[in-house]
Structure formats: C-alpha cells, structure tokens
C-alpha cells in the first residue's frame, strides 16, 4: 500500500512526461468541423475562454454548382435570405393595401427578381465577411477545407484545390449541418433546384413547382407566389409534419385562398427538360399516392424541399467509432452534447431528436464550450423553444402542439383556449377577417400552466418571442389574464382569451 | 455570398454594367506589365471580362507575392483599394479613385484588392469595413481612409501621398 514505484516507473519510461504534457501533444485544444451557427458559436466561445481553436468550413457545391461563404445554412441559404424574400413578398401585399389607405399611384408595380437577389446576396456577403473578421479578432484559426477523421484525434483537411493537410486536437465538435435531399427519380439532380440554389438564382424562377410540405417548401412557395409567380405545391401527405396540424392546415388554407395551388397526395416520378433556358421548361410527371392517377404539367422551375440530410456519412466517423443513426444520419448525444466517443461532441441540425434551429445550435454551442473549458455546468434547455414559420400568414409557436399535449398529458387534463381575430390594419385594407387565430393549451393539473402557445397572424415571430420568455417564467392562464393588453395590437388577444374548445362556443368575430 | 463557379464573376460584371444612374464605371485597368491580349485568366481564378480602356495606373492584385512585388516593393507610391463585390459604396469609390489616380500621370499607382478573394491579405492590413484605402510608400502604410470620399478629398489624399 502506498509507495511510488509506479510513478518512478512512469518517469523512467517517459510516460509520466507525456501525461503531464498531454494537451500540448495536439495542434489545437478544439477543432470544430463546420462553420455554421452552432460551429462558430462554439469555436468563438472556446477562443474567448483562452483555448487554441480551429474551425473548418467547406461547402460542397450543390448539383447545380452553387456554393457560398462562411456562416452556414442560416446565413447563406436559410433564415436570412428566406426572411428577406418573405419581406419582399409582404411589401408587395402592402403595396396593394396602400391604395385603401389613400396612396394613389398609376403605374403597374412589377417585381424584379435580379434586383432583389443582388441586394440579398450583397447583404449575405457582408455577413460572411463579418464572420471572417470575428474569427480573426478572437484568434480562431479558419480553414476553408473539407474535414474528415483519419484516426483518433486527427483529421485530414482537403481544400478546393485538393491539397491535404492534417491537424490534431484534444477535443472535436461536429457541426456539419445538413443539405437538401433529392427525390431519387430521373431528372432530379440535373434539372431540379433546392433552397441551396434558389436564393442566388441568377434568373427569375418563373412558373414553379415546389415539391414538399416542410416549412422550407411552404415558405418558399409563399414568397414566390407573393412576388407574383405562378406556384404549385405538390404534397405527399400532410403539411408541416411535426407541427400542430390544426395550425398547419390553416397555414395551407390561407396560401390556397391567396393563389397558391396545392396538389395533395401526389409525388413526382419523372422530371424531363423540354427546353434549356434561364429559366427553361421542365415537364413533371406525378403519380397519386392513392390510386393509379398520373398527372403531367410543365413548369419553368422545380424546387425540391422534401427534407434535409445530415452531413455525417463522409467525415470519417466510422474510423473513430462515432455512432450515428444509420437511417437518418443524425448523431445521438447525451444531455451534454457528447457522442459515444468521449472527446467528440456535436451541435446543431445533425443532433438526433433536437430542434433544427439556429438559436438552438448557437445556445448549445456556447454552453458546450463553457462546460468544456470554463468548468461551467449549465446544459442546453431544449424545452419550450419558440419558432416561427414565415409563410404568407405567419405561424408562431412555443411549447407543445395540441396532438403532443394530448399524448403527454391526456385530453381531460387540458384546457384549450382559442379565438379568431382581425388585425386592425387589415380592416381598412379589406383583408380576411376570421382568419388569424390564437390558441393556448393549458395543463389543468398544473395550475393551468401554459404548455402550448400558437398564433397565426402578421408579425407572429415578434409576438411569440415575448410569450416564450413568459413561458420560461412559468406562465399560467391566470398570469395571462392578469396581464394588461396593449391596444391596438394582435398580441393583446392572448390577454383576453375566454372561449375554450371544450365549450364548443363559436369564435367567429362578428362586425367590428 | 453564393457562388456558382465561373458564373459568379461573370454575372457580377454584367450586373455592375447596368447603368441605373450612369454612375458606375464598369472599367478596370489591367496591370502595366501584362500583355495587351491577356483579357481572360485561367478558369480557376474566374475573373470578370471587362471592356477595357488603355490605362496603366491601376491593376488588380493576383495574390500575396503579387502584392509584395507591386505594392510593398514598388518605387512609386501606391494606393490600395480594398473592396468587395457585395459593397455598394465600393462600386462608387472605385472608379472615382481610379480617375483621380490617372490624373496624377504615373506619380502614384493604384492596386485593387477584392477582400473575399484575398482575405488573408485584407486581414493582415487590418481591413474591417469596406471600402478601405491605404496609401503605401516604400512598403509602409502612411495614410488611410474608410468609406466614400469626393473628388476633391481624393485629390488632396493623393497629393499628400506623392509629397
């Protein structure tokens, strides 16, 4: 018992020295693979904490040849350009409302696609640059190269020219994100585009078929229709899978009433090019999912938005034994974002079972860095994360969908309050009444705690943000009722909710 | 910003040639040492194809060694215009500065650096916002400004550099 023979032995063999210097045996304290929302947040936080960090970011060009700069999906081909194009469409709507408010103009108002995309791409360029600067300021090494594991603690980075360099690190964070999925039918990769290509398309897409019913599909279909294009959405089954279905149907219904065509229960089986061009002409053949019916139609552009696949299959994870979900490609992690290999962590869209949202990735990335390098214990809280779908009629939500609430808490423990509302600005403009909708789901057995918040109306994102904070503070129906509304706003309807679904009372608004 | 391989620069040259108010001069001058027939560059350095006017006082920087050679080691003072494709003010300042430099009849030359193509160089010279213009004499940065300046201000800036 006791004694230090083992220590002397380690000293003799050189093992002791190695153990003492363990971390300096590696090039970096942390290497982050992927320079998107999650990766950059984690890398920068770790650098702020004094660690030696490297970020690798590389965009494999899309089948149509599109690529982009540093910042990941959100900045380049996601949230940012999407919201700007949504805004372009909203402004179009505002122009037509304007006449009712007294604005007189006599020219025909048209939309110029190239002007819009150039302006949006310029803004994105400034964001890419901003990220480069930020990494430089925080002394994070940045390499524009494709990273993959070759052995434990070591990656190979291949740049655009094919040159290979090797780097080692004590810890790794995988933040490689996702890319759009293709259909696997003839003509899909050659002739179809995806969200990767849409936001920088050098020509107006024209008559467009959007395949898919995800929020990407509906948001894109929404703003394309909003700028005046002929848009059809081809849906295999339901809209917005994973979201509250009552709200999803209302979102779709509004789009349909406002000129977006829906082909429900069809899937494309063939895409043929009839004419080359910018845009060209494509023939799409689609089959019904319920019978033998097939349809054919000609479009200028086919936009695929049927889902996204994780970029986890070609980064050498099998070489170091990181387990991935073979079917989905997603990475299962524990509540510390750690994979089954202790020195490898993951953040962002590639995580299994977590919401694919920028703020989630950023939060997870920051907290992870703090736990790894600052001894902090805080874990990322994935409960009550708010989000908004920026369709023509926006849908904001936080907490559980009605279906999920019933599943978790049982219908008898829930009380759902709801109402239709008519935004004041829509009255004079003569826009739909009895379309905007507000709903909260309360847990009766927990003080009528608000466990689900849903709003369909203008500025849904802005409204939802505030209520998300309230829910984090344990919002109950009583607290909502005690809150005085701001008048005249849309958000105030939540402070005066009275009618419950269970009462069966009519929520139609009559008159003003 | 998104790139579609060769299309990006080509497209940029087309877009920048649209004359909204006729303010943008879509001309770029080639380096004095290059042969006159050398209009295009190898595909992996997709450069725009501009119509050119004979001009020997402005050139685009190709890489680090090129910068070292033609700016740092230059006997003539050099103004370096750090610019970006996505920067509106750069598109105004660039041609204005070129004109002002040309008026100095070779006493000063101008190097253009696209900060996305040459990010390391830009970061090395601490460029954060664009346009950033550096005045370099005998390899040292002797003056600098950020943002747009008018013709008179540019002339004063250049006169000060020439000394």
Automatic annotation (TrEMBL), chain A:
<feature type="binding site">
    <location>
        <position position="147"/>
    </location>
    <ligand>
        <name>FAD</name>
    </ligand>
</feature>
<dbReference type="InterPro" id="IPR016156">
    <property type="entry name" value="FAD/NAD-linked_Rdtase_dimer_sf"/>
</dbReference>
<dbReference type="GO" id="GO:0005829">
    <property type="term" value="C:cytosol"/>
</dbReference>
<keyword id="KW-0560">Oxidoreductase</keyword>
<dbReference type="GO" id="GO:0045454">
    <property type="term" value="P:cell redox homeostasis"/>
</dbReference>
<keyword id="KW-0520">NAD</keyword>
<feature type="disulfide bond" description="Redox-active">
    <location>
        <begin position="74"/>
        <end position="79"/>
    </location>
</feature>
<dbReference type="InterPro" id="IPR046952">
    <property type="entry name" value="GSHR/TRXR-like"/>
</dbReference>
<dbReference type="Pfam" id="PF02852">
    <property type="entry name" value="Pyr_redox_dim"/>
</dbReference>
<keyword id="KW-0521">NADP</keyword>
<dbReference type="InterPro" id="IPR004099">
    <property type="entry name" value="Pyr_nucl-diS_OxRdtase_dimer"/>
</dbReference>
<dbReference type="GO" id="GO:0050660">
    <property type="term" value="F:flavin adenine dinucleotide binding"/>
</dbReference>
<keyword id="KW-0285">Flavoprotein</keyword>
<feature type="binding site">
    <location>
        <position position="307"/>
    </location>
    <ligand>
        <name>NAD(+)</name>
    </ligand>
</feature>
<dbReference type="InterPro" id="IPR006338">
    <property type="entry name" value="Thioredoxin/glutathione_Rdtase"/>
</dbReference>
<keyword id="KW-0274">FAD</keyword>
<dbReference type="InterPro" id="IPR036188">
    <property type="entry name" value="FAD/NAD-bd_sf"/>
</dbReference>
<keyword id="KW-0676">Redox-active center</keyword>
<keyword id="KW-0712">Selenocysteine</keyword>
<keyword id="KW-0547">Nucleotide-binding</keyword>
<dbReference type="GO" id="GO:0006749">
    <property type="term" value="P:glutathione metabolic process"/>
</dbReference>
<dbReference type="Pfam" id="PF07992">
    <property type="entry name" value="Pyr_redox_2"/>
</dbReference>
From TrEMBL, chain B:
<keyword id="KW-0676">Redox-active center</keyword>
<dbReference type="GO" id="GO:0005739">
    <property type="term" value="C:mitochondrion"/>
</dbReference>
<keyword id="KW-0813">Transport</keyword>
<dbReference type="Pfam" id="PF00085">
    <property type="entry name" value="Thioredoxin"/>
</dbReference>
<dbReference type="GO" id="GO:0015035">
    <property type="term" value="F:protein-disulfide reductase activity"/>
</dbReference>
<keyword id="KW-1015">Disulfide bond</keyword>
<feature type="domain" description="Thioredoxin">
    <location>
        <begin position="58"/>
        <end position="163"/>
    </location>
</feature>
<comment type="similarity">
    <text>Belongs to the thioredoxin family.</text>
</comment>
<dbReference type="GO" id="GO:0045454">
    <property type="term" value="P:cell redox homeostasis"/>
</dbReference>
<dbReference type="InterPro" id="IPR005746">
    <property type="entry name" value="Thioredoxin"/>
</dbReference>
<dbReference type="InterPro" id="IPR013766">
    <property type="entry name" value="Thioredoxin_domain"/>
</dbReference>
<keyword id="KW-0249">Electron transport</keyword>
<protein>
    <recommendedName>
        <fullName>Thioredoxin, mitochondrial</fullName>
    </recommendedName>
</protein>
<dbReference type="InterPro" id="IPR036249">
    <property type="entry name" value="Thioredoxin-like_sf"/>
</dbReference>
<dbReference type="InterPro" id="IPR017937">
    <property type="entry name" value="Thioredoxin_CS"/>
</dbReference>
